[in-house]
Design a protein that fits this description.
By secondary structure, this protein is an all-alpha fold. The protein is 69% helix and 0% strand. The chain has eight helices and no strands. The protein starts with a helix and ends with a helix.
């Protein structure tokens, strides 16, 4: 079974966090568990397939979680998050994950200014959501990195600083930001 199929089976977007994978698995396992459907001959098979998908995604995310990578996920850079302080309506949750997919697309196509606008708008709406703050930090980091490549060092420093403030607990992001500051120092000498 391919990883993309596993995400689809668990009804997740590609690159979902380990927390989201666990939550989706538990939710679906409760729905398809064979003990709940004793007369359904296919319940056991559905449950086994669901369990296999969960195992594949769980190991896939653990392998990739050591990387801060654009093409896998915005939210694999940090540890699992606690539940939000204020529960969101289903509409708000849908908006959040729809925006997440939009952010992934914008970053993959290197539309960094648009990604900043999108993540800032989402952060204004849900300023306490740890996922969104993490996405904001990563988007700022990528823009800062891009500005260094363009030679706009002053602006790059601003966005790297914003990245660190947006997600201060993200150790991997902090390491990447420090590396970019070292790169700026090498450029300036």
């Amino acid at each position: 079974m391919k990883v993309n199929q596993c995400y689809q089976l668990l009804e997740l977007v590609s690159g979902a966090s380990l927390t989201d994978i666990r939550a989706a698995y538990r939710r679906l396992a409760r729905l398809v568990h064979p003990d709940l459907h004793p007369t359904d001959r296919h319940a056991q098979k559905r449950f086994v397939v669901l369990n296999q998908a969960y195992q594949i995604l769980q190991s896939s995310v653990k392998v990739c979680s050591s990387e801060l990578c654009l093409n896998t996920s915005l939210d694999q850079a940090t540890e699992d998050f606690p539940a939000p302080l204020f529960p969101f309506s289903q509409r708000e949750v849908d908006l959040k994950w729809s925006t997440y997919r939009t952010l992934q697309d914008l970053l993959q196509h290197r539309k960094l200014n648009q990604a900043v606008a999108v993540v800032d708008g989402l952060a204004q709406r849900h300023s306490q959501d740890l996922h969104i703050r993490q996405w904001q930090g990563i988007v700022y980091y990528f823009l800062g990195q891009h500005l260094i490549d363009l030679g706009q060092i002053g602006k790059a420093k601003i966005y790297l600083k914003k990245a660190g403030k947006a997600d201060p607990q993200n150790i991997q992001l902090s390491q990447q930001i420090n590396w970019e500051h070292q790169r700026i120092a090498r450029i300036m000498t």
